[in-house]
Amino acid sequence: MLRFQPFPALSQADDQGLLAMGGDLSVNTLVSAYAQGVFPWFNEGQPILWWSPDPRLVLIPNEIRISRSLRKSIKNKFTISCNRAFEQVITGCALRGNAGQNDTQGHRQSGEATWITQDMHDAYIELHKLGYAHSVEVWSKGELVGGLYGVCLGRVFFGESMFSSQTDASKAALVYLCNHLHEKGFTLIDCQVASDHLLTLGAKEISRNEFVAALVDINIHEKNADFATAFPCEFDDLKSLLSR
Fold this sequence. Notes:
Helices cover 29% and strands 22% of the residues. The protein is of the alpha+beta class. The strands form two sheets. A seven-stranded mixed beta sheet has the order 5-6-7-8-9-4-10, sandwiched between helices. A three-stranded antiparallel beta sheet has the order 1-3-2, covered by helices on one side.
């Protein structure tokens, strides 16, 4: 059974949002961190760094902006799945095989290894096995060409990273995720920090206090075990978003 791990008061974070250093990446610590509005982000060779930025970038699921060109790409180029290839997705995010792409925080991809260290990889694989972390996969002609992953608690999806090896593949993953979350009554997607990439898709900044208020009903012991149930896998399934 999980044990709640309290973090320092979020008001103690510095101007960049850095709240704490050290600790571990156990399931207890990670789930407790997300429930309190805190996430890990550090590079190889650094101690584990815990962040809670103010303001916080979020995306309301039914407010995602879908351009005509993106609709065309989604309709004609891709098929979608959920939780079918979690480890492949996190590996794709870690390797960032294509230069010039962005992850969910808008960090530029360089074709080199990223902040997703082996310890981070293993920790999120464990979260996935336990039903806390989920992935969306984008396929083209049977090949995985994009996807995203994150942690789900209560009615909040905490986005971690995305990757794309074809134009619009990661955006397609986000559109299908937003449709699914809207259908299931989720209130927001945590995008962590601002980026032009996500702002153009409809994300917006809110205060840290507003963000934490959205987490008040989270129970770390409750998993979204049926998260992948009825996930939209075809273009015609995107009724909630495309009917706007």
